[in-house]
UniProtKB/TrEMBL annotation:
Pfam families: adh_short_C2. Gene3D superfamilies: NAD(P)-binding Rossmann-like Domain. SUPFAM superfamilies: NAD(P)-binding Rossmann-fold domains (SSF51735). InterPro entries: NAD(P)-bd_dom_sf (IPR036291), SDR (IPR050259), SDR_fam (IPR002347). This is SDR family oxidoreductase. It comes from Ferviditalea candida. Transmembrane segments: none annotated.
Length: 261
């Protein structure tokens, strides 16, 4: 299926690795020109250069911390000055630190709030006038914790749920502008972040990483961790011109792990 990305412009945040990088590559494969950002200028420049050469698309790699207002403003300004339009926005950010409620300081809560919730608010608000022109699509990356909280991840459980609530609300508010918004919630997709979570659980429970991963696999009907590309192809559809009627939904890419209705 041709997703209709040729000639379009997609913005992907936290794109240097993991799910962000996988989605960026899928969009490039479909022909989208890309604006990519990461806190690491070298990593994001390397990725942008590779995708441009491999898929023949235009790319712009920028160093930006999405928890900072000035960096989001810079991202928007550079996108419009370089390309003059935006058709798709993928809001992504690194997960907050793990730990229990009583272990978190005010500074921990504030950092997670700015990085994982306010970044989405500011990105959508800032790109809204431009997305309205193109009838653009927005996808946020959350977590299976929006349905079932994950032990030891109180910050993620709180703010990922907030993002899902925001997206559901905006589907109603921005729908008349022709903008479609959805949330993609990964289960156990094999990224560095998921390995870190498993390692923290292994340390907490006095087990090996292999033991923990085998226990996790027992909870997944498909019997394995997912691959980033398996999520990326679905996110690409939601961001594409082929998506004309799906909005306000939260999708679990989890191999059947989440048992709740």
């Amino acid at each position: 299926m041709d997703l209709g990305f040729k000639g379009s412009v997609a913005v992907v945040t936290a794109a240097s690795k993991g799910l962000g990088a996988a989605i960026a590559e899928e969009l490039a494969r479909e022909g989208a020109n890309l604006v990519l950002c990461s806190r690491d200028q070298i990593s994001i420049s390397v990725l942008a250069d590779r995708l441009s050469k491999q898929y023949g698309v235009k790319t712009l790699g920028l160093a930006a911390d999405v928890s900072l207002v000035r960096d989001i403003d810079m991202l928007i300004d550079h996108t419009m000055s370089e390309f003059g339009r935006v058709d798709a926005l993928l809001c992504n950010a690194g997960g907050p630190k793990g730990g229990s409620f009583l272990s978190m300081t005010d500074e921990d809560w504030e950092k997670a709030f700015q990085t994982n919730l306010m970044s989405t608010v500011r990105l959508i608000r800032g790109f809204y006038p431009h997305l309205k022109v193109t009838g653009g699509k927005i996808v946020t990356i959350a977590s299976s914790s929006v349905k079932i909280p994950i032990p030891g991840l109180v910050l993620s459980n709180t703010f990922r749920a907030g993002v899902a609530g925001l997206m559901k609300t905006l589907a109603s508010e921005l729908g008349p502008s022709g903008i479609l918004l959805n949330t993609v919630s990964p289960g156990r997709i094999l990224t560095d972040r998921v390995v870190e979570i498993d390692e923290a659980r292994a340390q907490r429970e006095g087990k090996s990483l292999v033991q923990v991963q085998q226990e996790v696999i027992q909870e997944i009907p498909l019997g394995r961790y997912g691959q980033p590309k398996e999520l990326a192809v679905f996110a690409a559809f939601l961001l594409s011109k082929q998506n004309t009627y799906v909005t306000g939904s939260t999708f679990f890419i989890d191999g059947g792990m989440v048992k709740a209705l």
